[in-house]
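Bumping my old thread because nobody answered last time. Still need a sequence for this structure:
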């Protein structure tokens, strides 16, 4: 019997706020343990939480970006459980009335566009972080109370690769919208995986297995690549799967059972008596809507449609928003946006990356020599540091398009323009790089090349087409690189066939 996987993901994302969800403590990574804490986030008796409005807005904004409905009323609930990293012994979350519901995410997969439905994106609080040492354990409560958004998908995913692509698309949307930095190394994104298998062609879901607290997208993919075949093997051998929670051991490459799955009633949810329900007003929602941005996939598709770019170029500008904005500012004025894209991606981006690499090398070398890393490294160049205006890229592309300069000369012009900020036209004039397109002058160079190279001439006439390139090279040499190569080729071919 053939089986298929059914996968749903619960993605937990720390929101990009300055303070925590219920108090004024800093939402900051890397502080000394238990320094960003107060009676509220430590759950001491007698304290009252006050909701962080920016977190509410970022959650509503996420709902808009994920095509969700924003309900007229949302409330907070207490999810009761006991664990060392939860100081109150309950988590403030949203249960039956979340901030957003019923959306979807479109993303590229297998050469097409896939859609995963979003059940809800609701707001809650993060917990502390446990540390286990040789003989004891400790808890850092700096993270406790940090605004955390849980994005729950419908079970629309069917493979490990599809789950991986969905997570990356979701991350891109959240970063684009300024909702979260989604820094995996800082624990800003974590994921719970719900996976079951069923016979192909059936509709009933199998026993749901949850894999908890995945902290990398690649880990999610590897865990599913193991867990799906494991479940199929159990069923194929006549075994039975029960709803349970497992953990992923990345080093061993296996999932291990932790416990049988809890149900909602195990958490004894009830409305938090210290927090009023939240009803967004029209002006409040209008402010949130003003912060909505173009989605990454829509941006890529628009760049391909409006500027005739190939998918690879559009992908570059999707992933590097400042570079894409820089390109678009020029492309709107250009008759050949693809040529502009080539200069921005292949030349400008390469130069900026080169400066970044030099800065990193200097930091490494200075660190080895014991010098101050803060003062001895060269500053990394950004688009704002460029000495030339964006229009200079367009001017350079137009010079090549008009055959005023050759492609090789254009590379020289760009390097000079990058270093000095001079205009391309001024550089061409100063260095005498203008291409010779005068037919009479080029014919003279062609005649000299033909007369001086009887062997290649004979080769061409006998059918060896490649000999023409050698003769063209001789013309370029005689003209000191200034002859229009296309015109030189046309004239040579006419003379040799005449």
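Sorry it took so long. Here it is:
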């Amino acid at each position: 019997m053939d089986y298929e996987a059914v996968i749903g993901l619960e993605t937990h994302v720390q929101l990009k706020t300055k303070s925590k969800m219920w108090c004024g403590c800093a939402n900051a990574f890397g502080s000394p343990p238990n320094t960003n804490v107060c009676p509220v986030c430590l759950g001491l008796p007698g304290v009252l939480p006050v909701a962080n409005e920016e977190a509410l807005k970022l959650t509503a904004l996420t709902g808009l970006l994920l095509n969700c409905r924003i309900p007229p009323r949302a409330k907070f609930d207490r999810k009761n459980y006991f664990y060392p990293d939860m100081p109150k012994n309950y988590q403030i979350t949203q249960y039956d009335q979340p901030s957003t519901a019923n959306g979807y995410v479109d993303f590229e997969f297998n050469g097409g566009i896939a859609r995963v439905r979003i059940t809800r994106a609701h707001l809650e609080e993060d917990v502390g972080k446990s540390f286990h040492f040789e003989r004891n354990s400790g808890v850092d409560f700096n993270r406790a109370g940090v605004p955390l958004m849980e994005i729950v998908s419908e079970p629309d995913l069917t493979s490990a690769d599809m789950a991986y692509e969905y997570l990356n698309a979701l991350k891109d949307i959240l970063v684009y919208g300024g909702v979260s930095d989604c820094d995996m190394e800082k624990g800003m994104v974590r994921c719970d995986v719900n996976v079951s298998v069923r016979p192909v062609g059936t509709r009933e879901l199998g026993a749901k297995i949850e894999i908890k607290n995945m902290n990398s997208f690649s880990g999610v993919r590897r865990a599913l690549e193991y867990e799906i075949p494991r479940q199929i093997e159990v069923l194929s051998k006549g075994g039975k799967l029960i709803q349970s929670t497992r953990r992923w051991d990345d080093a061993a490459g296996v999932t291990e059972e932790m416990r049988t799955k809890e149900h909602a009633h195990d958490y004894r949810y009830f409305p938090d008596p210290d927090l009023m329900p939240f009803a967004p007003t029209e002006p409040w929602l209008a402010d949130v809507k003003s912060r909505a941005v173009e989605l990454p996939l829509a941006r890529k598709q628009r760049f391909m449609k409006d500027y005739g770019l190939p998918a690879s170029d559009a992908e570059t500008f999707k992933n590097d928003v400042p570079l894409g904005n820089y390109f678009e500012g020029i492309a709107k004025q250009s008759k050949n946006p693809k040529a502009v894209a080539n200069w921005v991606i292949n030349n400008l981006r390469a130069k900026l990356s080169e400066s970044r690499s030099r800065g990193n090398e200097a930091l490494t070398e200075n660190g080895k020599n014991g010098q101050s890393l803060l003062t001895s490294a060269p500053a990394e160049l950004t688009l704002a540091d460029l000495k030339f205006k964006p229009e200079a890229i367009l001017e350079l592309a137009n010079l090549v398009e008009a055959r005023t300069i050759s492609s090789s000369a254009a590379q020289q012009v760009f390097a000079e323009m990058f270093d000095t900020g001079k205009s391309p036209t001024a550089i061409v004039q100063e260095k005498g790089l203008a291409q010779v397109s005068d037919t009479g002058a080029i014919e003279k160079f062609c005649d000299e090349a033909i007369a001086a190279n009887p062997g290649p001439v004979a080769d061409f006439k006998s059918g060896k087409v490649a000999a023409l390139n050698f003769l063209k090279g001789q013309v370029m040499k005689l003209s000191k690189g200034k002859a229009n190569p296309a015109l030189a080729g046309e004239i040579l071919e006419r003379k040799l066939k005449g």
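The longest strand covers residues 112-125. Let me know if any region looks off to you.
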